[in-house]
Amino acid sequence: MKKQITFITLILIFKLGISQELKKDNYETVKTFVDFIKNNEIDKIKTLITYPLRREYPLSDIDNEIEFEKRYTEIFDDSLKNMIISSNIDTDWSAVGWRGIMFNNGDLWLNYDSRLLSVNYQSGFEQDKRIELIKKDKTYIHESLKDFEEPILIIETKKFKIRIDKLYNAKYRYASWSIDSTMSEKPDLIINDGNWISEGSGGNHRYEFINRNYKYDCIINILGAADTPPAELVVYQDDKKILNEQGQIKRK
User: Fold this and answer.
1) Are 168 and 188 contacting, i.e. CB atoms less than 8 angstroms apart?
2) How would you list the strands of the sheet with 108-110, edge to edge?
3) Which end of the chain is more exposed for a tag (fewer CB within 10 A), N or C?
């Protein structure tokens, strides 16, 4: 079983018109990685990862080599390992410009220096664990927020704690508290009917919410410069920017 990770990492980038054949050095990079998977060389694989290795919320990210060793089989299950081992490097792996080397339409990404950037595949174990965590999540949040399909993310800025959930109508909900509050308390603000908006092919995106003459943008930066924050909260009043706060994405 597999599922594309929709937030902790790169969105699906179609091959048409942007992928390229692998150069010789890239070919060797992929071959080495495939051999590591084939031989279950976890000690070598764990040194290739750019931590944290993102998992779909509310699954916790993998922050270091020790955690990766413990959860290796949760991510690289038999299905994913078999796909990688049996893959054709010429047809199943491709160079996608500056983004890196893509496997199987985005199930996994390497960079050109042999680093493992992301695993967007989700094993059956992770899918079941995520369902369990979502049920648990609904037991402690405020009663006004319990009706949702799945949690998307939590952002903390200097002043605010923001929670975004996907609703059953495929829209998104924004809830916010002061930074020192807990999510079991009644939110200071709830906005329904939000939208997910892509910001280019690199995975950057935002969630847009309209509340009368106010617009709230929760910006998620997957790719950016070294000083680019993981998230930003930008608020407009009558199209005039009145607030812009950098944020951290909380996943535990």
Assistant:
1) no
2) 93-95, 101-103, 108-110, 116-119
3) C
